[in-house]
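Quiz preparation item.
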């Protein structure tokens, strides 16, 4: 969550948080990877509407085409949490 907090405090949305993009290093530190779909928010454009990401991890507002902000990354992270608890990929 610290990685997402850093991104969001700098007005960046990752938009592709999923288990494949969360890396566990040998020293047990966790890294967020693959910023290819990330986007910078501005005062002029504080929300996005584009349909981008990996479907199983997308927040409802992304799927439905409604304007969204950084909270979509939290939704995706929650899906990763479900995968972890169930010990199965979605």
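Solution:
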């Amino acid at each position: 969550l610290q990685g997402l907090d850093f991104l969001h405090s700098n007005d960046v949305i990752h938009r592709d948080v999923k288990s494949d993009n969360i890396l566990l290093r040998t020293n047990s530190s966790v890294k967020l990877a693959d910023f290819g779909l990330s986007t910078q928010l501005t005062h002029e454009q504080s929300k996005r509407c584009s349909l981008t990401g990996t479907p199983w991890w997308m927040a409802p507002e992304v799927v439905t085409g409604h304007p969204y902000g950084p909270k979509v990354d939290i939704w995706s992270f929650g899906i990763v949490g479900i995968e972890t608890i169930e010990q199965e990929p979605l």
